[in-house]
Amino acid sequence: GAGVSQSPSNKVTEKGKDVELRCDPISGHTALYWYRQSLGQGLEFLIYFQGNSAPDKSGLPSDRFSAERTGGSVSTLTIQRTQQEDSAVYLCASSPRDRARHEQFFGPGTRLTVL
Amino acid sequence: SQQGEEDPQALSIQEGENATMNCSYKTSINNLQWYRQNSGRGLVHLILIRSNEREKHSGRLRVTLDTSKKSSSLLITASRAADTASYFCATWGNTGKLIFGQGTTLQVKP
Predict the structure, then answer these.
(1) What secondary structure does DSSP assign to A56-75, as a single string?
(2) Which of A19, A51, B9, B54 is an S-S bond match for A30, by CB 3.0 to 4.6 Å?
(3) A3 in Cβ contact with A105 (< 8 Å)
(4) 3-state DSSP: chain A helix, strand, coil percent, rounded to 5?
C-alpha cells in the first residue's frame, strides 16, 4: 500500500516568507508526528497528533511554527516569517494508534532552504 | 535536548566486516528502536528491543540493551555496500514520543 507522502520534496524560499509543508499519512493511521532534522543532526520532535485529542505542541521551537491536521488525516506544517535557521529537512511520520510506541512510518521529507 | 547519544559519529569499514554502533540514553525507557536513513531522507524502522529484553536478532542485525548502563548497541554482521546509511537509535519512555539520537554514519566500501 501507499506509504507516507510529503510535499513539496524541496522548497526554496526567501527569508521572511511563509511556507506550508504537507503530509499525507498512511490511511487509517491516527498518530502523526512532525520532526525537523538539521544537516548532519538527529531528529528534533516538533508536534504530535493522536486522533481527535489536543496535539502535543511541546516541540515547536517558536510561535512562528504551527500545524494542523484536517479530518484526522492530512497535516500541514506552517512556518511564518521564515529565518535562515529554519533550513532543514522536515519529516513526517505516522502510526496506528496502538502501535505508535512500536514503529513509526516516515515520509521522504521536505528539504527547506531559506535564503 | 536529545535523549540519545551515539558513537561513533562516523564509521567506515570494508564490505564483509562487522559494524558496531552504540547508543546511550538518559532516562527510563519502555523500548529502544533503531532506524536507518538513506541519503538524508525518510527513516526506516529496523528493530525494536523492549526494556525487559537484553538481546534481539533480525537477519544480520543484533541489538543489545543494558538498562543498568542505559546503553544499547547495534551490530551489523557481514556488511554490504547497501548498508551504507545513517543509523539512529530512538527511545520511547514516559514522554509519549520517540526521542532520537544524533546518529552514526556508516560507510561500507566495496
Answers:
(1) B-TT--STTEEEEEGGGS-E
(2) A51
(3) yes
(4) 10, 45, 45
Tell me how far apart the alpha carbons of residues B107 and B80 are, in angstroms, rounded to a whole number: 9
Q: What is the CA radius of gyration of chain A?
A: 13
Distance from CA of B94 to the nearest CA of A (A): 11
Confidence of residue B2 (pLDDT cuts 50, 70, 90): very low
pLDDT of the residue at B4: 66
Between A45, A48, A103, which is nearest B48 by CB? A103
Q: What is the DSSP letter of B64?
A: E
**Cα B102 from Cα B15, distance rounded (Å):** 24
Pairwise pLDDT comparison (A40 vs A24), residue with the higher score: A24
Instruction: Give B102's contacts in chain A (Cβ within 8 Å).
Output: 41-42
